[in-house]
Amino acid sequence: MSAYVVFTKEKTLDPSELAIYQRQVPSTLEPFDARRLVTNGPLEVLEGAPVEGVVITEFPTMEAAKAWYDSPAYRDARVHRQKVRSIDACSSREFRSPQEVLCAVFRRLRQRTE
To answer: Residue 114 and residue 112: Cα distance in Å, rounded?
Structure first.
């Protein structure tokens, strides 16, 4: 069963650090057969707190998702991500489809405003 890693970006604090992060991440995903489903494209939040962006990445298994997150290459990139966002909600869980992932993201955004 596929696993999905979800990041929501609420506010960019340092655009130069974000640029470094965005340059480094793609190469960290390749060894884990990951596929980006959503990458900070146009976003309209219909309910819940506003966010600047959402990134959803699909991995073949939960083990692959965790191995990527803990890999030395992503740990190096992660340092830059942690410098650029006021709050970065990260969730990793197995879902049956990408549609379930999107529903979970929007439920989480709605809960933050309640």
So the answer is: 6
pTM: 0.78
- Which positions of the chain have pLDDT values less than 50? 87, 89
13-52 exposure pattern, b = at least 16 Cβ within 10 A, e = fewer: eeeebbebbbebbeebbeebebeeebeeeeeeeeebeebe
Question: Domain spans of the chain?
Answer: 3-113
Task: Tell me how far apart the 2 most distant CA atoms of the chain are, in Å.
Answer: 39
Whole-Å CA distances, 92 to 16, 59, 62, 100: 27, 10, 8, 13
Q: Which two tokens stand for residue 45?
A: 């939040």
Strands (E), 41-114: 53-59, 88-94
Q: Domain 3-113: state its class.
A: alpha beta
User: What is d(CA 41, CA 34) in angstroms, rounded to the nearest whole number?
Assistant: 18
Quick check: 66 and 4 in contact, CB under 8 A?
no
